[in-house]
Amino acid sequence: MFKALVLLDEEQLNYSLDLVEVASQLAGEEEVALYGLGINLSNKELKGLDYLLTIETQESLKDSRIVAGLIQQVQTTYQFDTIIILATDFGRMVAPRLAMKLEAGLVADITAIEVDEKGRKLIRPAFAGNMLASIVCDSTPIMASVHPNVFHPELLTKEPKVITFCPDGMKASTIEIIKIENQPELKDIREAKVLVSAGAGYETEIENLVPLAKQLAGLVSVSKEVVERGKAPREIQVGQSGKTVSPDLYISLGIYGSMQHVEGLKKVKHLISVNTDKGAPMNYLADLTVIGDAATFVEKLTMRLKK
């Protein structure tokens, strides 16, 4: 029996439940027992798990050190073969702390899994996204973090058995809130059916893409290079270090198509690539390629749609 634990993020439960597909693939041909661990989830209707381990507390646990300690206690009790964590901002703080406590390795931001005679292999981009690394895991627990929206299980119908886990000596958080700044809430590009996405080859202001995106009932997104130049917030970045998206239409404007960026595209139905470089890898992935200036293309398409 292959025992797998998924850490459930109460703010992103749907993406957390997608991780059951990771556990199922890691199990290979073995029978798998799927456990989910969450805070105050006993009243939530969750499907796709065999067991729901819930820790009931009056506090909202946002201290990654405390959460890592709780998972360590759960692991001591149940001895899981793998622990899988969603690679949100919070998950990225929990995962390495937990790996240190368990003296286990951690494979971050995995995009695929292979199980064969050589063992269980976790695949992730390496060398700034220029190649894929296949990492063989021969010790337990196998720890991995996964971007939201990368794995997609089939319809989840299984009702879990709820188990209340009572940790020993849970300490209060020592984190002190010094200042709170309210930022404008951006729509999540992972939910968009249409994305108008700018790369390094789009040399005008990102705001100029908003009218086109609105006409297409979509959102604006960008590549890593645009974020690094300070032209756009990381919340709208597509790629391995950004968000994984799966829109019906993806309009790529001046995006070269590095592996780091392409790994952020999953199940895109239609892709249009606009680039002055005929040899850009994104052109070969596209349904339709336009060789030309991205800014000019945006201007003309926006005018055409207005008519």
UniProtKB/TrEMBL annotation:
It comes from the Bacteria. Residues 4-179 form the Electron transfer flavoprotein alpha/beta-subunit N-terminal domain. This is Electron transfer flavoprotein subunit alpha/FixB family protein. It comes from Enterococcus alishanensis.
